[in-house]
Amino acid sequence: MSEELKTRDVVLLHGLGRTPMSMLPLAWRLGWAGFRCRRPSYPSTQLTVPESIAHVHALVTEIGRPVHLVGHSLGGLIAAALLREGDLPIARAVQLGSPNLGSPAADRLAGTWPVTRICGPAVDDLQQHDVTPETHPHIAAIAGIKGPPLPGIDIEEPHDGIVSQASAWAGAGHRASVPSLHSFIMTSAEAARLTAHFLTHGTFPEGHT
Fold first, then answer.
1. pLDDT tens digits for 53-81?
2. To the nearest 10°, the Cα dihedral for 61, 63, 68, 73?
3. Residue 80: CB partners within 8 Å, gap ≥ 6?
4. Is the pLDDT of residue 6 over 90?
5. Are 150 and 112 in contact, with CB atoms under 8 Å apart?
6. Residue 204 to residue 115: CA distance in whole angstroms
7. How many CB atoms neighbour CB 33 within 10 A?
8. Distance CA 2, CA 125 (A)
């Protein structure tokens, strides 16, 4: 295994409209497993998805050494995009409930004044689409599979209330699910255990894909 893949440095990326504090429970658990975690902030509600990717690219560039990326929802989209770009020393990436094929919640809410005001332009980029990302062996996806969906949202089963398992798994080389709602998957002890295992070994434990 290369020295890059052995890194114990992890950057945790929060989701849309969240803060680094939302990633604290995961940081604690990964810390107990021997990882050194950073929880940077980025202005998720002020940027489009491509702009958020560029913003975090600069943050990771400043670190200057190999890291793993772990992101919740939008943060996971950013993590996978930066790994795929291939110009940064990113070893592995874990996505937690990330809408790789978009979300019907974004379809319904995009363009509405309250959501645009609160969540910003990224919501438009998170609408459903059929462009499946290329499967990557160093990307793992953990989906939540505990509903119910948001009121008025028709979403494919199983799902976490906002993102379907199919969307969360698209493009990931390794896949797992935990019984969690979308907003709380990063607080799941099981999700943390699976994340630590993948960052260490490059696979999930037996019984997961």
1. 999 999 999 999 999 999 999 999 999 99
2. -70
3. 71, 93, 95, 98, 100, 133, 136, 139, 171, 172
4. no
5. no
6. 36
7. 16
8. 35
Question: CA 147, CA 143: separation in Å to the nearest integer?
Answer: 12
Percent over 90 (pLDDT), the chain: 75
By the 10 Å C-beta count (0-12 exposed, 13-18 middle, 19+ buried), 32 is classed as: exposed
CA–CA gap between residue 168 and residue 141 (Å, rounded):
6
Q: What are residue 38's DSSP bridge partners?
A: 11
Q: What is the pLDDT of residue 106?
A: 81
The set of residues, in sequence order, having a beta carbon less than 8 Å from that of 35 and lying 6+ positions away, is 8, 9, 10, 68, 196, 199
CB 80 within 8 A of CB 171: yes
Query: How far, in Å, CA of 26 to CA of 103, rounded?
Result: 24
Cα separation, 53 vs 135, whole angstroms:
19
The string of pLDDT tens digits covering residues 79-130 is 999 999 999 999 999 999 999 998 988 877 666 656 566 677 787 888 888 8
Backbone angles phi, psi at 52, to 5 degrees: -65, -40
Could you report the per-residue pLDDT of 40-51, keeping only the tens digit for each? Answer: 999 999 999 999
DSSP 32: H
Give, as one character, the DSSP assignment of residue 21.
G
Q: What b/e sequence results for 145-174 when a residue is b if at least 16 CB atoms lie within 10 Å of its CB, and e otherwise?
A: bbbebeeebebeebbbbbbbbbbbbbbbbb
